[in-house]
Amino acid sequence: MNRLRLYLEILAITASRFVLHDAWAIASHIALSVLTSMFPFLILMTALAGLFGTGSLADEAADIILEAWPKEVAGPIAGEVHHILTGRRSDVLTIGLVLALYFASSGVESLRVGLNRAYGVRETRAWWLTRLESIAFVIGGALVMLALAFLVVLGPFVWRGILYWVPALARFGNIIDFLRLAVATVVIVAGLLIAHKLVPAGRRSFRSVLPGVGVTLLLWLLGGVGFGWYLDSFPGAYASTYGGLATAMVALIFLYTLGAIFLFGGELNGTIILAKRRRLNTEPKPPLTDVIAMP
């Protein structure tokens, strides 16, 4: 009972810190930044894939990114994504690449703002240094996505080779779909861990960020199912309100929901870390509820 009461108290403090840190407003900033940086990021992947002579990998990587989205949200966006990635672009290795890097890194910067507040830390590095770090994250993420896309593309060939030698495994034909879902899950978990550990100022252990990552994954799953159910049950709701902008607004509201959940996970980690510091402090400790007032 005492442990349950402690958990409820931590959740209540987390919710209060979430509101006090203007997380709703920052979530809208994250949603807009991610939406505007998505296409530059995919264009960057196209340029990098072209350098290795495997331009189709960028298209596959885009499918992996959208794999975890509800089909009602990902469907309309996927068509535009494939249209852009299959178009021939002559500027992606010149000034276009620089602009794509800059705009794609803005998504990382929006996460940094929210996580710095959630963990109660202040960024002391120069703006250009954090921007370079964000660009490094973008380039690294693009290369990782291309590598994972290569594995997904290679999977069917390997599977056919296995079936040639072991035909009895043919009844497990859905293993490729499972592989795609597993890759998308790995990308999400790894991205959350890296974001919480490396993006905000200061350093935290992987263990200290696991509670927020776990809660984020659970709420993202529930939120995705709920959002998909709403769009499936009321398909004309957004079209009647936003008209031709319905597709963009659905994606923006979906990303806004994900951004708010992501920040809640950060606030949960920040609350737990501060509570542990209070407990380890030898000085007289104020009630845990005082953590609410901390930055």
What does this 3D model show about the protein?
- Its main location: membrane.
- The chain crosses the membrane at residues 31-52, 92-115, 135-158, 178-196, 208-230, 242-264.
- Keywords: Cell membrane, Membrane, Transmembrane, Transmembrane helix.
- The chain is built from ten helices and no strands.
- The protein is mainly alpha-helical and 295 residues long.
- The two termini are 30 Å apart.
- It has one domain (2-293).
- Helix 2 (23-51) crosses helix 10 (246-280).
- Residues 282-286 and 289-295 have low confidence and may be disordered.
Topology of helices and strands:
Blueprint: H1 2-20, H2 23-51, H3 56-67, H4 71-86, H5 95-118, H6 127-165, H7 175-198, H8 206-233, H9 237-242, H10 246-280
Helix pairs in contact: 1-10, 2-3, 2-5, 2-6, 2-10, 3-4, 3-6, 3-7, 4-10, 5-6, 5-10, 6-7, 7-8, 8-10
Counting DSSP H or I runs of 4 or more residues, the number of helices is 10
Helix content estimate = over 70%
Shape: globular
Q: Stretches where pLDDT falls below 50 for ≥5 residues?
A: 282-286, 289-295
List the secondary-structure elements in sequence, H or E.
HHHHHHHHHH
Radius of gyration: 21 Å
Q: State the major sheet.
A: none
State the separation between the terminal residues, measured CA to CA.
30 Å
Mean pLDDT: 80
